[in-house]
Automatic annotation (TrEMBL):
Main location: membrane
Keywords: Cell inner membrane, Cell membrane, Membrane, Transmembrane, Transmembrane helix, Transport
GO cellular component, one term: plasma membrane
Cited function: Part of the tripartite ATP-independent periplasmic (TRAP) transport system.
InterPro entries: DctM, TRAP_DctM
Entry-linked Pfam families: DctM
Organism: Hoeflea olei
Top-level taxonomy: Bacteria, Pseudomonadati, Pseudomonadota, Alphaproteobacteria, Hyphomicrobiales
Protein name: C4-dicarboxylate ABC transporter
TRAP C4-dicarboxylate transport system permease DctM subunit domain boundaries: 14-514
PANTHER family in the cross-refs: SIALIC ACID TRAP TRANSPORTER PERMEASE PROTEIN SIAT-RELATED (PTHR33362), SLL1103 PROTEIN (PTHR33362:SF7)
Ranges of Pro residues composition bias in the record: 586-612
Length: 625
């Protein structure tokens, strides 16, 4: 019996801990307790199996591993982005965005559904928290969509799916954790996920557009009385054109002498601040230059868009790290809330309390995962997982499909933090051995987890929406009638088309990895001829080379006394009058192989790179054998 346990301790440990998690035991304590319990077992049966490499002194390594968690600067981005999202959510930014964008698209069939998708993307790029997005849009949009006779399933599915965009649109917490566990840059993970995230938003909108064609009664346009801001299209187009012109002028002329990144930042700042200030003056002074719609769109949309650029733009441009971007985002959220007079002591304390709880939750899970990993690796569990995955048929494709199915199923029961801290470190070495780009692998897992958030019956987004959706008939004063409740069946059925879109997106990512791997910069290829021309154009360089006019007598390494090295050879030049024995000007062949006046031609008339004779080849030069 002991032999059986010793030789199969890795799968026994893995199955036991995963079973305890699925039963519902606290994650951090289950991981830590499982790691310590099986550590004791491993030490006691270690003499039986050569695959077990555990000993009592090794247990002391847990302390260093815990301190490594605390020293991880990347994880600082989690509380920053969480705090930013909570402040924005409590300042009712979602309410303002949904109202404004809903009226902007209100004249279209399905306008409210389009607005929910676009606002979901904006909230994802500012809050990064699924629960906050789903709950906010469920409380605000769902009653309005039901008031104007939207199909219950479509309304519920659109809200739930749009809320899960926070899983994958930067600055997603999922991507931060994935990058940390994969040992890759968070900035690269953000850049790699950007295009796929925009594609999934477009696919959601395309699905709603198809519904407007085949089921127009499901997605009616808003009646005129529901759009008090009117249309205002011409003035809105005018303000957009002015903003674009301001950016081009700033980039091409005003800030043309600055670096590329700085030019983009200052030009974008001017293109947003000037229209925003103009819209505020237009409202305060009743100037009448802008329509009510254009005025509202500028005042409501520009602050969150500016915050998104402040966070993501600076990260993408390489100006700020994700941690610094998160700190700027949190500061920007506070400034926005103060400007709208929606930040009080209670709101601030609630946001700080929730942020502290989430950060502590993440830290404890990560500490538990480190204790688990020390034991699991000590009993060769990583080799067991690697051999198991590499034995799958289909090679790379078979591995990706199998991992997608496993993560998809686990995502229905476990939070993404738990999956990232347990599964990803075990799967990453296998992916790397198969030649899979780890940024692409992380984005693929992120989309997989997003799909699992929607999957009945255990999808987290479904529970969030169910908690705020009406469960009894209610009287709507605006519509003047009773409205039926949203059933759980409607929520489940409404998400099914979006789950199919997610699965299709996974297939697209597997088929076209370049959508993610574009984050890699092209390798710099140096042209030797171009280098020669550059060197010759400046007539040499420094450190006593011809054309520099600089000599360093006595400098270390240049033949002086201080270096304690013999003088460098004169390469056969008469007199050896350069610094440290380098040839004097005029002793080197000119470009093109023609001898300089008083100099010696290189063998065959061809100069070495840079126009200098190769050591040991010019007449009289010593050999370096």
């Amino acid at each position: 019996m002991l032999d059986l346990i010793a030789h199969n301790l890795a799968p026994i440990m893995f199955v036991t801990v995963m079973g305890m998690l699925l039963i519902g035991y606290p994650v951090a304590f289950t991981l830590a307790a499982g790691g310590m319990y099986f550590f004791v077992i491993g030490v006691e049966v270690g003499h039986i199996s050569p695959e077990i490499h555990l000993s009592w002194p090794l247990a002391q390594a847990n302390m260093n591993r815990v301190f490594d968690v605390m020293r991880n600067d990347t994880l600082l981005a989690i509380p920053f982005f969480t705090f930013m999202g909570l402040i924005l959510e409590r300042s009712r930014m979602a309410e303002d965005l949904l109202d404004t964008v809903g009226q902007l698209f209100g004249t279209l069939r399905g306008g409210l559904a389009f607005a929910v998708v676009l606002v979901g993307a904006l909230l994802a790029a500012t809050t990064g928290v699924v629960a906050a997005s789903v709950i906010a849009m469920g409380l605000i949009s769902l009653p309005i969509m039901m008031r104007y006779n939207y199909h219950p399933g479509l309304a519920a599915g659109t809200i739930a799916a749009s809320g899960t965009l926070a899983q994958i649109i930067p600055p997603s917490l999922v991507l931060i954790v994935m990058a940390d566990q994969l040992g890759r840059s968070v900035g690269d993970m953000y850049v790699g996920a950007f295009f796929p995230a925009m594609i999934i938003v477009a696919m959601y909108c395309a699905y709603i557009f198809v519904i407007t064609l085949i089921k127009p009664q499901w997605v009616p346009a808003l009646p005129p009385e529901a759009r008090p801001l009117g249309n205002g299209g011409p003035s809105l187009l005018m303000i957009l054109a002015v903003a674009g012109a301001l950016f081009v002028i700033g980039y091409s002329f005003v800030f043309s002498d600055l670096r590329y990144e700085t030019r983009v930042v200052w030009s974008a700042l001017a293109a947003t601040i000037i229209p925003y200030v103009f819209a505020l003056l237009n409202r305060a002074k009743n100037l009448g230059y802008l329509s009510r719609m254009a005025e509202q769109v500028v005042i409501v949309l520009i602050p969150p868009l500016a915050l998104i650029f402040l966070v993501l733009g600076t990260i993408f441009l390489g100006i700020a790290t994700p941690t610094e971007g998160g700190a700027m985002g949190a500061t920007g959220a506070l400034i926005m809330s103060l400007a709208k007079r929606r930040l009080d002591r209670k709101t601030l304390l609630q946001a700080l309390d929730s942020t502290a709880k989430l950060a502590t939750f993440v830290m404890f899970i990560l500490i538990g995962a480190r204790v688990f990993a020390l034991t699991f690796y000590g009993i060769s569990g990583n080799r067991w997982v690697e051999d198991l995955m590499l034995a799958l048929p289909g090679g790379e494709t078979g591995f990706l499909i199998t991992v997608s199915v496993i993560v998809f199923i686990l995502g229905c029961f476990l939070d993404f933090f738990e999956i990232a801290f347990i599964m990803v470190p075990l799967l990453a070495p296998v992916a790397e051995k198969l030649g899979i780009d780890l940024i692409w692998f992380g984005v693929l897992l992120g989309f997989n987890l997003q799909a699992s958030f929607l999957t009945p019956p255990f999808g987290f987004a479904l529970f969030y929406l169910r908690s705020v959706a009406p469960i009894k008939p209610w009287y709507d004063e605006v519509a003047g009638r009773m409205i039926e409740p949203i059933s759980t069946r409607s929520i489940y059925s409404g998400t099914l088309p979006f789950i199919l879109i997610q699965v299709a997106m996974l297939g697209i990512l597997i088929a076209f990895p370049g959508l993610v791997t574009h984050y890699k910069s092209e390798p710099l290829i140096l042209d030797q001829n171009e280098i020669n021309r550059e060197i010759n154009s400046i007539g040499g360089g420094g450190f006593g080379l011809p054309g520099s006019g600089l000599s360093l007598p006595g400098a270390p390494g240049f033949g002086g006394e201080a270096g304690g090295m013999p003088p460098m050879p004169s390469f056969g030049a008469p007199g050896g009058s350069g610094a440290g024995g380098l040839p004097a000007p005029g002793a080197l062949p000119a470009p093109g192989g023609l001898p300089a006046p008083g100099g010696l031609p290189a063998p065959g008339g061809l100069p070495a790179p840079g126009g200098l004779p190769a050591p040991g080849e010019a007449t009289g030069a010593p050999k370096f054998d």
